[in-house]
Structure formats: C-alpha cells, structure tokens
TrEMBL record:
Protein species of origin: Mesocestoides corti
Name of protein: Queuosine 5'-phosphate N-glycosylase/hydrolase
PANTHER family: QUEUOSINE 5'-PHOSPHATE N-GLYCOSYLASE_HYDROLASE (PTHR21314:SF0), QUEUOSINE 5'-PHOSPHATE N-GLYCOSYLASE_HYDROLASE-RELATED (PTHR21314)
Record function comment: Catalyzes the hydrolysis of queuosine 5'-phosphate, releasing the nucleobase queuine (q). Is required for salvage of queuine from exogenous queuosine (Q) that is imported and then converted to queuosine 5'-phosphate intracellularly.
Top class in the EC scheme: hydrolase
Family: Belongs to the QNG1 protein family.
Molecular functions per Gene Ontology: hydrolase activity
C-alpha cells in the first residue's frame, strides 16, 4: 500500500536517520510567511511570473503542465497545451562544477535553469514551431528537440535532452489516444478533485509517478504532479480549470531548492555524513536513503510552517488570508531565488539527476 505524499512526509520524518526537523526554527519562518502573505512581497500570484500565460483558457492548461517554471516577466500569451507541456519538462536544471550553465537568451535577456527552458519554449513558438499541438509534440525528432532547446553556447545542451524528448512524445501520444489531444479532458474527468487528478496524472503519464521505498514502506512525493495541479489553481485563480475543492490536500513540492532554503533557515538539520556529501557535491541517487530523507523532511517541515502560520492569522483575527502548502512552497522557492548568493554560500543543495524534480 502506498502512502500519500503527506503520509509519506510524516513517516519519513519520524524515522529519519540523517535529516531532522528543528522545530524551534519553525516560528521564525512562519512569521516570514505570514508577513509575505499579508504584504505580497515575494508575490504568490501565478501572473507575477512573466513567462506564464497572461490569457488563461483551455490552451493555457496544455502549456503549463510540461514546463512549470517560475520566470520573470516576458508577457507572452500562451495556449492550452502549454501548461501541460511546462510541467512535463520541469526537472533537473542544475549543472556540475566547471560545466557551463545552460543559457537561453530570449528578447535580449539571458535565462538559466528553469527559466531557460521557458525561454526556449517561447522562442520556439515565436519561430513558428507549434508546440501547442499534441500531434506536433508526438512526432518531434531529436534534431527538432536540439533546435527547440538549443543553448546560447552551441557546445552546451540542456540536461537530459533525449529523456525530455521521450516524455514529450509519450505524453502527447497519451493525450491523443485517450483525451482528444487536450489535457483539459483529464481535468474535466476529475470533477474538481485535486486528489483524483493527481491519481489520474500519475497513472496515465508515468513520468509523474515520483515514488520510492523507504524502510519497507512505499512512499510517494509526486512533485511534478502536484505542482501541475497547483499551477492550474494559481493560473486560473481557483476558478474554471483551476477549481479544486480539495486543493489544500496538496503538500509542498520536494525538489532541490526548497530543502536548501529550509536548511539555510535552520529548519532542516543534516548529520555530518550527509553534510559532507553535500559539501563535496556528491550526486545522491534517486531513491537513496539520503535523498528520500531530505525530501520527506522538507514536506513535513512545510506542513509545520503552514500550521504555525495559520495560528498567526487566527491570533490576528484574519479569517480571509489563505495559507496552504502551495503558497508556502512558492514563498520559499522565490526567497531562495531572490537571495540565491547568500543561500548558496551558507547551504549547498543536494544533487540528484532524475526526471522527478
């Protein structure tokens, strides 16, 4: 029997050997989140990210699922295969030491990592490549992919290029065979349930099936599947294709950046063995005890931060401001991005090369 991401987080954090949650550090981060949600300093709106579609509709849905990256304003209007396209490709952008970063310049601005991916998709659309058509995605060749995701440096390739191509083709083929080429059909089949949509996505599109075995239990994280649903909720402001009665059932999204900033804040504590691996920039295998414990503790820590933040809103008599794991994750991810140099100097991220994050 599989544990849900929330159940997995609790089980892993209770049995972890290498990663512990420092509960005494929770209130300070909760206060930061409280202040952010009240002021909007870091922006929790999906619209705040310039490479996200500014016009929402069925075509917005299909775009956001493969790339799901938070980019700075480019103000492009997207279509419906877009959301699905974005979150299908939202994984593994880091590079090793002494290896040039993947950089894509779009409209005069260079972008790295996730944003480079978004820039590449935007560029391809402007060049007339109809990546919003599932038929086109299903028939892409390796040469097509190299052209779409080409870097400013011709000697640098986006990580896992061939794997990304395979995922695009597989996802497009499933959409064409089962959902008339449109991800909105998946959403409609789930009748406003985030839990049902998560189950459908992970079953029908296996690259979203992010799970592991930890101390004899089948644990799940479903990072990309959950962030897909969260992105729909944010993009559509909880309405239409973004309406989910159980949106608060989602956890945070266990990637390599949110644990890093939680460790920076002192919420996560790594033992000496794990810390040495991170400092040496060793690769942690996907599903290894170290990687699973980092991700599980990350999710549970965010749950605790959300609980404490809700208490702060209750004490303030504020019953209107929403706080859930999606918004907490968004805040933490953006905080790490804004203070990247400071965080990097103090706390290394863990390095796992995989398709799940």
């Amino acid at each position: 029997m599989e544990l849900t991401p929330r159940e997995s987080a609790l089980f892993i954090s209770e049995h972890s050997d290498h990663v512990k949650i420092n509960r005494s550090a929770i209130p300070a981060v909760a206060q930061k989140l409280f202040d952010n949600l009240k002021s909007g300093v870091f922006g929790s709106s999906w619209d705040d990210h310039p490479m996200h579609p500014k016009a929402v509709g069925p075509s917005t849905v299909n775009w956001y699922v493969v790339l799901c990256f938070y980019c700075d304003r480019l103000g492009i209007v997207w279509a419906d295969v877009e959301i699905f396209l974005i979150d299908s490709l939202n994984f593994s952008f880091w590079t090793d030491e002494n290896i040039p970063k993947y950089v894509v310049t779009f409209r005069g601005t260079p972008h790295t990592g996730y944003m480079a991916l978004c820039a590449a998709i935007n560029r391809a659309l402007e060049e007339g490549k109809n990546l919003l058509d599932a038929n086109v995605l299903a028939s892409l060749t390796l040469d097509d992919a190299r052209s779409i995701f080409r870097s400013d440096d011709p000697n640098v390739e986006i990580p896992l290029l061939e794997t990304r191509l395979q995922i695009m083709r597989e996802h497009a083929s499933t959409l064409l065979s089962d959902y008339s080429g449109c991800f909105t059909k998946c959403i409609e089949a789930c009748h406003g349930s985030a839990a049902k949509l998560l189950k459908l996505v992970c079953e029908k599109f296996p690259s979203f099936s992010d799970k592991a075995v930890y101390k004899g239990r089948n644990v799940t994280f479903y990072k990309r599947g959950q962030i897909l649903i969260a992105d729909l909720w944010l993009a559509f402001k909880g309405e239409s294709y973004g309406h989910f009665d159980d949106i608060d059932s989602l956890t945070a999204f266990a990637d390599y950046r949110v644990p890093q900033v939680l460790a920076y804040f002192g919420v996560l504590h790594y033992d000496d063995e794990l810390m040495q691996k991170l400092l040496k920039k060793e690769h942690l295998e996907s599903g290894s005890v170290w990687e699973v414990e980092i991700r599980g503790a990350c999710l549970e820590a965010v749950e605790l931060i959300v609980q404490k933040t809700r208490e702060l809103f209750a004490e303030a008599g504020d019953e209107r401001t929403r706080c859930n794991s999606i918004l907490a994750d968004n805040f933490l991810w953006l905080y790490r991005r804004q203070f990247a140099s400071e965080v990097e100097e103090c706390m290394p991220m863990h390095r796992t090369r995989c398709i799940y994050y």
